[in-house]
Amino acid sequence: MAGGHLRSYIKIKQTVPEKINIVAMCDPVVANAEKFAAEVEEAFGKKPTVYADIDEMLAKEDLDAIDICAPHGYHHVNAIKCMEAGVNVMVEKPIGVTVKATLAIMEVSERTGKIAATAEQIRRMPSRRASKWLMDKGMIGEMRMFFCQEALWRDHGPEDRWHWRLDLALGGGGMVMDSGAHFCDTVRYLYGDPQTVYARVDRLETRMVTKGDEQVQSSHEDMWAATINFKSGVTGVWSSTLAAPGHEWKHAVHYGSDGCLLDDGDIFHGPFDGAKVILKDGTEYPMSDIVADYKASLSADETEKLFPHGFEDGVLLECYDFVDAVENGRDVEIPAAEGLRSKSICEAIYESGAIGQAVDFDAVLSGEIEVYQKPINEHWGL
Question: In sequence order, which residues have a C-beta less than 8 Å from that of residue 329 and are 6 or more positions away?
Answer without folding.
Answer: none
